[in-house]
Write a structure and sequence with these properties.
Elements (H helix, E strand, L loop, with lengths): L2 H17 L6 H22 L3 H12 L6 E10 L1 H8 L8 E10 L2 E2 L4 E11 L6 E11 L2 E13 L2 E10 L7 E11 L2 E11 L1
Parallel strand pairs: 3-9
Antiparallel strand pairs: 1-7, 2-4, 4-7, 5-6, 5-8, 8-9
Helix pairs in contact: 1-2, 2-3
């Protein structure tokens, strides 16, 4: 398995492992993540002929799953009519997706603290029954993806939408700058934004 496939496999499997801790405390979910990571690492290591080494690596990386998700909320902040007015949108203009805003709060946090990531976007000209929108948030450090915080495809009618994701920083998180990369995709249109969190 080459290094790129290795990283993709770790990120994908950690996303699955992350679902298990849910709303546990930071310590509890970090422990669960380490165990899950050990299993994942063992699988990867076995594929490379180094099961024990893989399990050790997996346990260390799996601790990242301690970034437990606590709350996820979504709401429509403006009706279709209000959004049309904001954009001076005409019905014959076709579908339009726009990422209106986003961010993280607080941008400076301590281990054990909670951070809220927010994303806002508008959908205009959606077909009857709504449009499929892919929302994703990825946690990065030093440009490398650590884990997927949120990855979901939802149906949206026309309007302005906002969703917030609250997650907890593990007590043993390494100090430094982390990045939350937010992505919104619909009908071939894509928007990406990144916001930094300083853990100290």
């Amino acid at each position: 398995m080459d290094s790129r496939k290795y990283r993709v496999t770790v990120v994908a499997l950690l996303a699955i492992a992350l679902a298990a801790p849910g709303c546990e405390t930071a310590g509890g979910s970090a422990g669960t993540g380490a165990v899950a990571g050990g299993v994942i690492g063992g699988i990867i290591g076995n594929q490379q002929g180094r099961a024990l080494e893989g399990a050790a690596i997996g346990a260390a990386v799996g601790g990242l799953a301690g970034w437990g998700i606590h709350k996820y909320r979504t709401r429509q902040t403006k009706t279709a009519e209000e959004t049309y007015k904001d954009y001076e949108y005409e019905p014959d203009a076709g579908f339009k997706l726009d990422m209106k805003g986003g961010g993280v709060s607080p941008s400076v946090a301590s281990p054990g603290g909670k951070v809220t990531a927010t994303v806002q976007y508008a959908t205009l000209g959606a077909p009857p029954g709504g449009v499929q929108v892919h929302e994703m948030r990825t946690l990065k450090k030093d440009g490398e993806a650590l884990l997927v915080l949120h990855d979901e495809t939802v149906t949206r009618e026309d309007g302005t939408w906002e969703n917030t994701l609250e997650f907890q920083i593990p007590n043993d998180a390494e100090p430094g700058t982390y990045t939350v990369a937010e992505t919104v995709i619909a009908e071939g249109q894509r928007f990406d934004r990144e916001f930094d969190i300083t853990v100290q």
